[in-house]
Write a structure and sequence with these properties.
Strand content: 15-25%
CATH class: Alpha Beta
Radius of gyration: 25 Å
Number of helices: 11
CATH topology: Rossmann fold
Oligomer: single chain
Structural class: alpha/beta
């Protein structure tokens, strides 16, 4: 065999940086990247459809191209279930939405808010400790927090199992109720990393769709700080009414501690007796209606729903009521705007209230978004 000439050797050496660059690029495809990716989300939406649909409906949805299902949990708690799908170097945690069972809907309707830190008793021998925010003012939806309580330990164990197999990238996804639980799960996993209960090297990204409001502004601040710069998205069909729920009531004491209303109340005390009577009357006109509304909602969506829950889940301890309904939309929004063709396929219809909320309209809109690029 002839020896390579000096010129040939030099040319081969010149190729090394190019080869290294190409290999680096190929390797990077396996890494989870920040930023919204419509094609990535479409695969996750197909996974959600598989997680949520019954066997007959599954036939109408395509399977995701890049992932295969590896695990499906038992049905627990509020008829909750989650699945693990595996792709190349990435795992997807997919959480099921509401089902047609009463207990599942009770999780939605138990809409009182509760502090984002505490403990929930599940059975005589099992409980769930959580700290979803370092802000003491952060509040979250009680029903979906209880749903997370039944799923969290199993998810944690699977994350540990697959991280030992070399999986460091995890995408969390869910539609509707599943998205709400997914958001709370993301905050919970952050706390587990802070406690060194799961590896701090793990990367989490979250895509939620058709997701209702899961907490107040102070929870939103912490969650959005955690997922900012392209690591968390809330995809919304602007015709979908579910992301507008639960009903929000903002009372004067829902504001930050330093605010106009607190200072106004203090200034009223310094007025003479006649002005004090007048200003207190006007202040109560502003303050009392929201307090009264919160009290009514707490009774209906708190106590009454809790009584129904205990008929199915007698051991669970209902989280304390924070007496607030100051719900806000959470997460970096990706807004999908229906066009005329969409409205022909999915016309407004009060007899089919979920026509804009199901997987079909979301798949249609994301495909239009992909094609437009």
């Amino acid at each position: 065999m002839n020896k390579l000439t000096y010129k040939e050797n030099r040319n081969i050496i010149k190729l090394f940086p190019i080869l290294f660059f190409v290999l680096s690029c190929l390797s990077s495809f396996a890494q989870l990247k920040a930023g919204f990716n419509a094609k990535e989300f479409k695969d996750l939406l197909l996974i959600s459809a598989q997680t949520n649909a019954n066997l007959e409906q599954k036939k109408s949805y395509n399977l995701p191209l890049l992932y295969t299902k590896q695990y499906s949990s038992d049905t627990v708690g509020f008829d909750n279930l989650w699945e693990l799908w595996i792709g190349k170097k990435t795992a997807v945690i997919s959480i099921r939405a509401s089902t047609n069972k009463e207990i599942s809907w009770l999780a939605d309707f138990h809409a009182t808010m509760t502090p984002a830190k505490g403990n929930i008793t599940l059975t005589a021998s099992k409980s769930f400790n959580y700290n979803l925010s370092n802000n003491s003012q952060a509040l979250v939806h009680s029903g979906w927090l209880m749903s997370l309580a039944y799923l969290a330990n199993d998810i944690e164990l699977k994350i540990k199992e697959y991280s030992k197999k070399g999986i460091e990238n995890f995408i969390i996804t869910g539609h509707s109720q599943g998205g709400a639980i997914a958001m709370l799960l993301r905050a919970h996993l952050n706390n587990l990393q802070q406690q060194n209960k799961i590896s701090s090297n793990l990367i989490f990204k979250i895509y939620c769709s058709g997701t209702p409001k899961v907490g107040n502004l102070y929870f939103a601040y912490e969650y959005e700080k955690l997922t900012q710069n392209g690591w968390g998205f809330n995809i919304i069909n602007t015709k979908d009414w579910v992301p507008e729920t639960p009903i929000s009531i903002q009372k004067l004491n829902d504001f930050n501690k330093t605010n106009l209303f607190t200072s106004t109340k203090q200034k009223i005390k310094k007025q003479n007796i006649f002005k004090k009577i007048l200003f207190n009357f006007l202040y109560k006109k502003i303050d009392h209606p929201t307090r009264k509304a919160e009290k009514k909602y707490s009774n209906i969506l708190g106590k009454r729903v809790a009584n129904r829950i205990h008929k199915t889940l007698p051991y669970i301890s209902i989280p304390p009521n924070a007496h607030s309904f100051n719900y806000v939309r959470i997460g970096t929004p990706i807004l999908l705007f229906p066009d005329e063709n969409y409205l022909k396929l999915f016309p407004d219809n009060n007899d089919t209230v979920f026509i804009h909320h199901s997987f079909e309209p979301y798949l249609y809109l994301i495909e239009q978004l992909i094609l437009s690029k």
